Amino acid sequence: MVDVTAEILLFDGFDELDAIGPYEVLANGAEAGASLEVRLVTLEDADLVTASHELRVEPDGTLGEPDLLVVPGGGWTSDDGGVRTVVDDGSVPDAVDERFAGGATVASVCTGAMILAEAGLLEGRPATTHHDALADLEESAANVVEERVVDDGDVLTAGGVTAGIDLALWLLEREFGAEVAEAVETEMEHERRGEVFG
């Protein structure tokens, strides 16, 4: 029986590594003994999702009621789709807020934090994002912390792009123990940078 369900929410223009990095970490965590299932999902039915560098991904299904929801970034600082389009539309932030209200832990990578901010989850909380979006995050009433990973309990945020790997490793450690996280670090030949804030 799976104890934790994790879903990574994809949308057109998401940054590839923001989503695929955490996916690989969490999937490797399951192989290392974590009672965890991870899925790539979309808000609406979609055969393919096109990421910011034109990678096309076939999602596993639509957003359910996960224990952990990971929201990638991409496109906020370039004004060419991705997060900025999703924030302007409002449906993804609304869905994130609904899952959070239902008890999900919500985590963002890079400018995915702007989706969490639009959902109202970061007001008065410590949070981080890609360095190019820190000023925008501060305007959202978040308490900006320039750290790689920020853990505020039921809401976590990570800095730019590769920080999502460190975020996912921290989640494995927090939920399933250091042994699982260290096994995945070794498997992926990755060394975490910095301390987790929170």
UniProtKB/TrEMBL annotation:
Leader sequence range is none
Q: What Pfam families does this protein's entry cite?
A: DJ-1_PfpI (PF01965)
Which spans of this chain does the record mark as coiled coil?
none
User: What SUPFAM superfamilies has UniProt attached to this entry?
Assistant: Class I glutamine amidotransferase-like
Q: DJ-1/PfpI domain location, by residue?
A: 7-173
In terms of CDD domains, this protein maps to: GATase1_PfpI_2
Q: Name it.
A: ThiJ/PfpI domain-containing protein
Organism, by scientific name, is: Natronococcus amylolyticus DSM 10524
